[in-house]
Design goal:
There is one protein chain. The chain has five helices and three strands; from the N terminus they run H-H-H-E-E-E-H-H. The protein has helices at 3-6, 14-19, 35-50, 80-91, 100-107; strands at residues 56-60, 64-68, 74-77. It has a three-stranded antiparallel β-sheet with strand order 1-2-3, with helices on one face. It starts with a helix and ends with a helix.
């Protein structure tokens, strides 16, 4: 029985929250790469996207993302939706996908 089943309010313990892997719509249903390599490929792309914002994203425990700023602020996110929210919390700005600076950076990809 999982922690989620034990708590009527839908809360879970920190261990399940840390270890629980969230399925994301961007996850490949079928890939030729092993799951770990696919995850590292995704993190490499995320680092490229967030480079103009001077952020570093690394794998944390194989299921979460560790986001760090150059000043040492950091946060852990589970899934891409939470990742973008945590980036906004850390930097005080939202990543604007129509920002000309970001678009020109991505065109070089």
């Amino acid at each position: 029985m999982s922690c989620l089943n034990q708590w009527s309010n839908g809360a879970m313990c920190g261990l399940c929250g840390l270890m629980g892997e969230q399925q994301d719509w961007t996850d490949s249903l079928r890939t030729d790469l092993p799951r770990r390599r696919e995850r590292l490929r995704k993190i490499r792309l995320l680092n490229y996207i967030t480079a103009p914002y001077r952020l570093s994203i690394t794998d944390f425990q194989g299921v979460n993302y560790l986001i760090q700023t150059p000043t040492g602020k950091h946060s852990i996110a589970n899934g891409l939706d939470q990742l973008w929210n945590e980036i906004q919390q850390l930097t005080g700005q939202k990543i604007d996908v129509l920002d000309p600076r970001l678009l020109s950076h991505l065109e070089a990809l």
